[in-house]
Each structure stands twice: as structure tokens, then as C-alpha cells.
Amino acid sequence: MAVLDQLVSGISIPDRSGIVERLEEALADYYGVRHAVLTCTGTAALHSMYAACRLGAGDEVIVPAYTFFATVTPLFQLGALPVLADCNADGNLDVEDVARRITSRTAAIVVTHMWGMPADVRALRSLADRHHLLLLEDGSHAHGAQVGGQKVGTFGRAAAFSLNGPKPLSAGEGGYVLTDDDDVYYRVLLHGQYNNRCRNELPRDHPLYRYSVTGMGLKFRIHPLAAAVAFDQLGHLDEYLDGRERIAAMMRERLTDVPGIAVPKVATGTKPSWYGFILQYRRESLSNLPIERFYEAVKVEGCHVVDRPVSTCPLNTLPLFQDPARYIRHTQTVYRIIRATSRTLKPFITTRSSCQSGIGMRMCTWSNSTFERSARSLTTTVSCYDPTDG
């Protein structure tokens, strides 16, 4: 119904009005921030956030070694230098390793909250503050997740989120940037929301107002139909998250004593969004049964659709991060940074499956030999969502 109503209202919105204004206001209110800007994808949101925070040539940006590649690839477009930091067994940044990688050229730390499990964002915020660095969040898995009662996406200078497909909050395709910083907000608009929005919203005395008509020459606006889907979903987000929490609690209870796997641990005061349900394989509990045999057994028990995720993985295993200079002309210096970093990371193998059992579930498994502390673990990610929720 929301999409049909929007078809009647209009399918192109070049300014901040209509469904775009309503959704941005609702997002700002939900997160308790001053500004929200919608984009066409989560990747676009990350790109605009980095550009608005003035990251560029010569800036080192500490990023997770394990993440979906779009957390990092927009930095290539800006000429910034990604520095891969190790992650804990839960897939989130290792604060101690981040600290080891700070140099005089470091400009920012980017934190993800993998599969909806919040990272130790308060420790990262403290680390960033001590070194006078930007803390930026990629909350694309963690809509509505909380740490100490504070929502993920509100701990740093800005945050970017995806509204893609099966995310906890979905528009089909889309994204958004959150910030309390007026200058970041204006620069996000200039980066991908040119002409009407910039001319209407930038102060005329802003030093970049004269670029309002063209912005940076990019068009990252969300489609109004996607905004209508997300607006309808946002009104039910907390209800959806409560449902995911109930499913996750049931799974943790029932799987706790199953030999060979370890259920996810939730830190006190942390509320995950449960985009994924992470299980670790403990081969020593099953007479060192190889991961491949265990995975085949899991399929026999009901995992009927299997694929191998190739985008959410240790970034140093991807050709773009091994040799970006072959493809992106301005990344010769980036290549040297990544080569220096990737020598500390080991390759790994990934697999993914989908399970059907009353509720819709997506399960990912990976042999997590990337991170030294979990070299023998298999990690399984089951995202809990009800397909009837749309």
C-alpha cells in the first residue's frame, strides 16, 4: 500500500520533500540525531560520509580486515589509504590491534558491527578521542542495535547504513547517513544530492555554497518508492528486532549443549540486531572432524541451498585489495599500505547456506583461520527474519 500511495504521489523527488523528508525526519527521531540523509545504496552512504569527513589523499584510515568490501572501497575513490586491522572471533574490530596501527598519518577509525553484534564501540571511541581521530560507523548490519542504551550509529562523527535486501531495515535498495555535525551534513548533501537540496539547505554564507548547483557531480538520491518501503518498515523496526531477539534466545538455549558448536555471547548492556546468528565450530569436540564433513552433515540435516559468500570475507584475500593499483590508477600508495598490512593476515575459506524451518533463516559458515585467536574455529551466521515481514 505504501508503494501504491507513492506511485500516485510521484516517482521523482529532487529536493527534501514528500516521502524523502518524512523518512529522514523519522530516522533522525529514531536515532536521536540532528541530521539524516537518504542515499541510493549503503555504498553511496559510505562514500558520501567519507567525503564529507574530508578523508582524502595521504590519510590513513583504519578499517576492519573482515567486512563486506564496500565498507572500505569508497576510500579508494577518495585517494585515502585503508589500513586493515585484525578482528576478534565475533568479526568485530580488535581494539588493541587498532591501537597498534595508529600512526601520525591516521585520520579516522571505521568500525562495523558485524552481523548485528555491536563492536566495542565505547573503547574505540575512547581510543579515537585520545588520538584526536574521527570515529566513523558502518552500521549496515545493526539497525536498532544498542550499547548501554545508546543506538549503534550515534557514537562517532557520522554513521552510514545500508537499506539493502534482507537488512533489519530494508528499502530493497538504499542507504542513509546520520550525523549531528552541520558541516558534515552540508558536505554529504554536496557530495550526492546536488542542485535543489543544496540550494535550499546550505547557508548562503557557507564556503561551498557556490557549488550547490553541481555539488560534486554525483547523484546518490534514493528512489521515492524505496523510501516508501523503508518508511513503512521503520514503524515496525523495534517490533521486528524483538522478534529476532526471541528467535536468537531460543537458538542460544537449544544449541548451547550441542557438541562442536559455540553460541554467540552477548556482552552485558549490549542489544544486537541479530542480522546474523554467529556459531563457532569446535572441531576438538568432534574428534577433529574436518569442517567439510561437518558442513555436509549440516546440509543433510536441512540446509538445502548452499552458496559461498565471496564479498564478506577477509579483504586481503580479494584481488582489489591485493593489487588495487592495477585497476585504480591513483592507488599506488594505497597498494603499498595494504601489502604491508596484509602480511599479518592468513587466507581463509568461506561457505554459506540457507535453511528453511518455519521461519526464514540464512546461514553463513566460514573457516576462520584469518584471525590468530580463532584459527581452528568455524563460524556460522544465521540471520533470523520472518519472510512474512517483507
Topology:
Blueprint: H1 2-9, H2 18-31, E1 35-39, H3 42-52, E2 60-64, E3 66-68, H4 73-78, E4 81-85, H5 95-100, E5 106-112, H6 121-130, E6 134-138, E7 146-147, E8 150-151, E9 158-162, E10 175-179, H7 182-192, H8 196-201, H9 224-234, H10 237-255, E11 261-262, E12 270-271, E13 278-282, H11 291-300, E14 303-307, E15 312-314, H12 319-322, H13 332-342, E16 349-357, E17 359-368, E18 377-385
Parallel strand pairs: 2-4, 2-5, 5-6, 6-9
Antiparallel strand pairs: 1-10, 3-15, 7-8, 7-12, 9-10, 11-13, 13-18, 14-16, 16-17, 17-18
Describe the structure.
The protein is α+β, with helices and mostly antiparallel strands. It has two domains: 2-234, 3-Layer(aba) Sandwich (Aspartate Aminotransferase, domain 2); 238-312 and 345-389, Aspartate Aminotransferase, domain 1. The protein is built from 13 helices and 18 strands. The strands form four sheets. A seven-stranded mixed beta sheet has the order 1-10-9-6-5-2-4, sandwiched between helices. It has a six-stranded antiparallel beta sheet with strand order 11-13-18-17-16-14. Helix 6 links the parallel strand 5 (106-112) and strand 6. Helix 1 packs antiparallel against helix 9 (224-234), helix 2 runs parallel beside helix 9 (224-234) and helix 3 (42-52) crosses helix 7 (182-192). It is globular, with a radius of gyration of 21 Å. Mean pLDDT is 83; it is low at 334-390.
